[in-house]
Amino acid sequence: MADKFRLNNGMTIPEIGFGTYKAAADGTERVISEAIWAGYRYFDTASFYGTEEELGMAWTQSGLERGEIQIASKAWKSELGYHEVRKAFERSLERLKTDYLDLYLIHWPLPTPDYRAWEKLDLDTWKLMEEFYQEGKVRAIGVSNFLPQHLLNLMEHAEVVPAVDQLEFHPGHTQEVTLRFCQDHGIQVQAWSPLGRNRVLKDPLIVSLAEKYGVSPAQLCLKYDLQRGVMVIPKASSPERMRQNLNLGDFTISQIDMYRIDTMPDYGWSGEHPERERVDIQIKAHEG
Question: What pTM value is reported for the model?
Answer without folding.
Answer: 0.95
